[in-house]
Design brief:
about 170 residues, mainly alpha, about 70% helix
């Protein structure tokens, strides 16, 4: 039995077609890691923004307001850590899609929300829901910004390089 299983797996693996050099040309093939990479970058942005501010009492801003008197050094320390992580996301987003890209993506989401409210599927009178929608849209913008260079490289096949002044 032990000799049959590896032989069976080897035969099964040899029967599978190998993707061509241009992986996007192979029907049904999704480049490895693209979706999962975007998902992880978006989740990182979502948790960053939700940890910084959300409509619940469980966020940095609400905690910092109540703990400022007794735990000022810890409030400043955690605020600086959140600020550094946010700067990494913002700089990467601005370098990859720029201000125009941010405006276009925000306009797409705003138009989608407009359609949902016009159809009666979404009511915007709930301030908590509006805050969560803002966190969601901002995190999607940051996730797209962090993943745009990789996505553009996969779609076009062209490498992205940084220009160095000097």
């Amino acid at each position: 039995m032990r000799a049959i299983v590896p032989a069976l797996l080897r035969d099964l693996a040899s029967a599978l077609p190998l993707p061509p050099r241009n992986r996007l040309a192979w029907p049904g093939y999704f480049p490895k890691g693209t979706f999962m990479g975007f998902l992880l970058r978006w989740l990182g942005a979502f948790f960053l923004l939700a940890a910084t501010f959300n409509p619940t009492p469980w966020n940095y801003v609400a905690w910092a307001r109540t703990a400022w008197g007794e735990q000022t050094p810890l409030v400043v320390f955690l605020g600086l850590i959140l600020a550094v992580i946010a700067m990494v996301y913002l700089v990467a987003t601005m370098r990859s899609i720029g201000v125009l890209g941010v405006i276009v993506i925000a306009a797409i989401f705003a138009a989608g929300l407009w359609v949902l409210t016009d159809w009666g599927l979404l009511g915007l009178d709930n301030s908590s829901l509006n805050t969560w929608l803002g966190v969601l849209v901002l995190s999607l913008i940051l996730g797209v910004g962090m993943s745009w260079s990789i996505l553009r490289q996969r779609l076009s096949g062209q490498q992205t390089t940084d220009e160095v002044d000097g």
